[in-house]
Structures are given as structure tokens and as C-alpha cells.
UniProtKB/TrEMBL annotation:
<protein>
    <submittedName>
        <fullName>Fasciclin domain-containing protein</fullName>
    </submittedName>
</protein>
<dbReference type="Pfam" id="PF02469">
    <property type="entry name" value="Fasciclin"/>
</dbReference>
<dbReference type="GO" id="GO:0005615">
    <property type="term" value="C:extracellular space"/>
</dbReference>
<feature type="domain" description="FAS1">
    <location>
        <begin position="52"/>
        <end position="184"/>
    </location>
</feature>
<dbReference type="InterPro" id="IPR036378">
    <property type="entry name" value="FAS1_dom_sf"/>
</dbReference>
<keyword id="KW-0732">Signal</keyword>
<feature type="signal peptide">
    <location>
        <begin position="1"/>
        <end position="22"/>
    </location>
</feature>
<dbReference type="InterPro" id="IPR050904">
    <property type="entry name" value="Adhesion/Biosynth-related"/>
</dbReference>
<dbReference type="InterPro" id="IPR000782">
    <property type="entry name" value="FAS1_domain"/>
</dbReference>
């Protein structure tokens, strides 16, 4: 398995805008009581993310989030993110981590850097259940680590501190995940 790099300065990284609604593939079924189509889940990293699973259980199925899952495990945050929440998670993909300087992930995974890794990961988590429709241009979101993220919204495109939401509204039993194309960093 190829190691990915995690959470260091993104100076010079280029970002592209993606319509968050265009990247979502969902599975639907008919609601027996209303006869209307009912959204069952969202396809992320080759796996169907379903509302009956918690954030961690859904992430474990995504081939696009293996680096994030490994980092969450190393930081000891699995039980927290499996808890009742609700949480809103901005989840960088493996490709986002690969843009970062070589050696970053390995450095953060060292036991002596667990506090730094935890601070970075909790910067991607906001208390509450915020769907894309709830995110407003210029809105400040207080993260679990105490710092804030800034929302930029242009039509259906949503960005968080410059990272584009590529897949919005991945609903889990204990919150919602938005897949982002870059990592975001607290002021450490």
C-alpha cells in the first residue's frame, strides 16, 4: 500500500472548482408510504455510504480515504467519531494528501507528534450536522480544535478554507461528511 502525505503547508497548490452537486452519485429506492424516491446513500471511493452507518464505518469502505482513516486511528479518534455526535467532517481524499511534502505523514504518525496530528484532524471536524444547504458564503465554523474554518460559496460550489467540496452531504447516523480535495491546516 502506498503511503500518503498528510497536512502541511499548501503553498503553491492549485485548486479547481467543482460543483458539489455534480459529483454525487446516489442510490434511491421507493418509499413504501409515499411512493416517492428516497435517497439511500452516496457512492464515495467505490463504496456506498449509507445513513445507517456512522461516519467511521462509512469511511472505512472508501478507497479514497485510506490515509484519513489511518491518521484517525493513529490519533486515537476512532471512538470519538463513532460516538453519537452529531459531527460535520470535511474529509480530504488520498489524492489531497499526495499533494503535500514528502515525509509529512510519517512525521505526524510518530508517537511524539500525536498531539499535532490530533489538532490537525480535529480542525476538519465541526460539532453539529451541517449539510451543504446550511453552509453560507463567509460563514465561520468553529472546529472541534477551537479554531475556525471559513466557507466560500459560489452557486452550488462550496469551499472550506480554499478546499473544494467535491462530494457533499454524505449522511451518516452520527453526522455528515463532505469530501474535500485538499487538506486544511490550523495555525499551529
Amino acid at each position: 500500500m502506498k503511503k500518503s502525505i498528510l497536512f502541511i503547508a499548501l503553498a503553491g497548490a492549485s485548486f479547481f472548482a467543482v460543483d458539489a452537486t455534480a459529483q454525487t452519485t446516489s442510490k434511491t429506492k421507493m418509499d413504501k408510504t409515499t411512493g416517492a424516491e428516497k435517497k439511500e446513500g452516496v457512492l464515495v471511493g467505490g463504496a456506498m455510504m449509507v445513513p445507517s452507518k456512522n461516519i467511521v464505518a462509512n469511511a472505512l469502505g472508501s478507497s479514497d480515504h485510506t490515509t484519513l482513516v489511518a491518521a484517525v486511528k493513529a490519533a486515537g479518534l476512532v471512538e470519538t467519531l463513532m460516538g453519537p455526535g452529531p459531527f460535520t467532517v470535511f474529509a480530504p481524499t488520498n489524492a489531497a494528501f499526495e499533494k503535500l511534502p514528502a515525509g509529512t505523514l510519517e512525521m505526524l504518525l510518530l508517537p511524539e507528534n500525536k498531539a499535532k496530528l490530533t489538532a490537525i484532524l480535529t480542525y476538519h471536524v465541526v460539532p453539529g450536522r451541517l449539510q451543504a444547504k446550511d453552509l453560507k458564503n463567509g460563514q465561520k465554523l468553529k472546529t472541534v480544535n477551537g479554531e475556525t474554518l471559513t466557507v466560500t460559496r459560489k452557486g452550488n460550489m462550496v469551499m472550506i478554507n480554499g478546499a473544494t467540496v467535491a462530494i457533499a452531504d454524505v449522511i451518516s447516523s452520527n453526522g455528515v461528511t463532505h469530501v474535500i480535495d485538499a487538506v486544511v491546516l490550523p495555525t499551529m
